[in-house]
Write a structure and sequence with these properties.
Elements lengths: L1 H26 L7 H16 L7 H16 L4 H11 L9 H13 L4 H9 L3 H17 L5 H20 L4 H6 L2 H9 L2 H4 L2 H14 L11 H16 L4 E2 L2 E2 H16 L2 H9 L5 H11 L3 H13 L1 H5 L5 H8 L7 E4 L5 H13 L4 E3 L8 H10 L3 E6 L1 H5 L1 H12 L3 E6 L8 H7 L5 E2 L5 H15 L7 E2 L2 E2 L6 H59 L1
Parallel strand pairs: 3-4, 3-5, 5-6, 6-7
Antiparallel strand pairs: 1-2, 8-9
Helix pairs in contact: 1-2, 1-3, 2-5, 5-8, 7-8, 7-10, 8-12, 10-12, 12-14, 13-14, 13-16, 14-17, 16-17, 17-21, 20-26
């Protein structure tokens, strides 16, 4: 304990000294790129980075790092001035001023610890777009190996900063995506100069995978790309310390499996992965799913295998492995597959179906551990799966995997339309084409729930205690026994609505802050215009 206390005290003292030197230099009118101030920022950055190399526990490292970044954020307008300084050098791209690369290195290290710093960067009008512009301006130089040292450092720092923002402060993901980073990252990843050196490509790959969705899987599925991803997975497996070249093993493994997950939704890629014997991607994924030290990596690997399940079940090489990983005996129930955004409506549907006497499985607790094991068991034990169709369902990787796995096991499927503004498209429209859709989004609930229960009656048992297609009807409990579960349901709905309101208030607060900053910028521009008009008149 004494040793840890000394580590914390030493780091705190060094960072306080660096901040004091920065403050003194700025009070003397020195700019952020002056040798004195620039060197102090560099020392501050190195000291924050050094926290990860201490003997503290991971939780203690992140706590200390967050505290040190909080000290920086409280240092007057320092962080805002850093961002303004970078924006002032936008017109000089691709030239990177000495102060600019040092500032981005600070952001890179600070965002690993501080969600507040991530939100500060995300909220600065035009700053993320500027970061994207820097990467675009460096592309030709980078792929032709003509970049100088501080340009390479800045490229790595910007991509790692956006990765940290998305990993440790996920509320900034939409802002990073909106700034246009993905198109730039994918452009880099497609070039041979990046593919040939995996370690140099890691920051770009991780940053891209953070903001990719199923419609962005434009990293092609050829052998070179598969090998590229597998190198990342093996890096995660072989790292004995939990970190490799300043990257956590779970980051490398999660990124690689996430990128593979996007690729695995493509039918041609599925065949490539399962038949490939050179890189043996599937065997590596099974190893990760069963024995990785990192829960996130295990779940990501299971997710890819889940997506490939239909091909794996048909493979003589992998059929037994996938059965051992996911296989269990069928018991029979009605499963509700849904996106959390439609949870209140689906809870009403669940209540009605349960009271009609059916055994219903629904993830109410929002599974966090062993997600794919529990999803697999729920689908394998189901005879009927209710597909709750909505825009959020279509975009969700978890939901897509549930629907695909249920289809691969030939489970009966009943589509429910639960979003009034949604029209089926893409993979979801193709999967449910020809099925009758129960429209709970536009039609009266009371009418559609009766129709749905009648459909379940046709598919399932009519006599009590018997089994048809594996779906068991239960005795309807007395009214006195129903009341507590109904009360719990109502309380759960109220909590959900309350959380929605809270999230709405947070979004409004962020938007308000951005609008206030934009108004401030417009005021400055107005004053500058007035000055220019005054000069012209004189």
């Amino acid at each position: 304990m004494e040793k840890k206390k000394k580590i914390k005290e030493r780091i705190t003292e060094d960072i306080t000294t660096s901040l004091s030197a920065i403050r003194e230099g700025r009070s003397q009118g020195k700019s952020l790129d002056s040798p004195e101030v620039c060197e102090s920022i560099r020392k501050l950055t190195k000291k924050i980075a050094s926290i990860m190399r201490t003997e503290l526990k991971f939780s203690e490292k992140f706590e200390l790092g967050d505290q040190m970044c909080a000290k920086v954020l409280k240092e007057g307008t320092l962080v805002d001035d850093m961002m303004d300084f970078c924006l002032q050098h936008k017109d000089k791209l691709p030239v990177i001023a000495p102060g600019v690369d040092v500032i981005w290195r600070f952001f890179m290290n600070g965002t690993m610890f501080s969600p507040d710093l991530s939100r500060k960067i995300s909220g600065k009008v035009g700053f993320l777009s500027y970061g994207k512009d820097v990467l675009e301006s460096l592309y030709d130089l980078y792929v032709n190996k003509k970049t100088i040292r501080n340009q390479v450092h800045t490229l790595d720092s910007i991509s790692t900063t956006t990765h940290n923002m998305c990993t440790f402060c996920d509320v900034t993901i939409s802002d990073v995506r909106a700034a246009g980073f993905l198109a730039v990252y994918l452009k880099y990843l497609k070039h041979e100069a990046v593919k040939d050196e995996f370690v140099k490509g890691v920051p770009i790959l991780t940053a891209a995978s953070d903001i990719m969705n199923e419609n962005d899987a434009s990293i092609t599925g050829n052998r070179r790309d598969v090998e590229y991803m597998i190198r990342g997975i093996k890096e995660a497996i072989q790292s004995p310390s939990g970190q490799s070249r300043c990257w956590f093993a779970f980051e490398l493994g999660k990124t690689a499996t996430k990128a593979l997950a996007h690729l695995a939704f493509d039918d041609d890629n599925k065949k490539t992965f399962v038949s490939d014997t050179q890189t043996d991607v599937v065997t590596t994924l099974f190893d990760l799913a069963r024995s990785s030290r990192y829960p996130d990596v295990r779940e990501s690997a299971k997710g890819v295998l889940w997506t490939l399940s239909e091909q794996l079940h048909s493979s003589t090489k992998y059929a037994d492995l996938v059965q051992k990983l996911f296989g269990k005996k069928t018991k029979g129930h009605v499963m509700i597959s849904y996106s959390q955004e439609q949870r209140p409506l689906l809870l009403r549907i669940k209540q009605a179906i349960t009271e009609a006497g059916f055994s219903v499985w629904m993830d109410i607790e929002q599974m966090r551990e062993n997600v794919y094991d529990r999803m697999a068991e729920a689908i394998q034990d189901a005879s009927v799966v209710l597909i709750s169709m909505s825009y959020s369902y279509q975009r969700s990787e978890y939901c897509r995997r549930e629907a695909a796995y249920a289809s691969s096991l030939k489970r009966a499927r009943i589509p429910l339309l639960v979003d009034p503004g949604y029209t089926a498209e893409g993979w979801l429209a193709l999967m449910t084409a020809g099925d009758y859709h129960y429209d709970f989004g536009r039609e009266p609930f009371e009418t559609k729930i009766v129709e749905l229960i009648e459909e379940l009656e046709r598919r399932c048992l009519k006599g009590q205690g018997e089994v048809t297609d594996g779906v068991v009807k239960q005795k309807v409990v007395s009214a006195s026994k129903k009341s507590p579960s109904l009360l719990e349901l109502q309380e759960d709905l109220l909590r959900t609505e309350k959380r929605k309101l809270e999230l709405g208030m947070e979004v409004l607060a962020v938007k308000k802050g951005k609008l206030e900053e934009e108004i401030g910028v417009l005021k400055l521009q107005k004053e500058k215009l007035r000055e220019e008009i005054s000069i012209i008149r004189k």
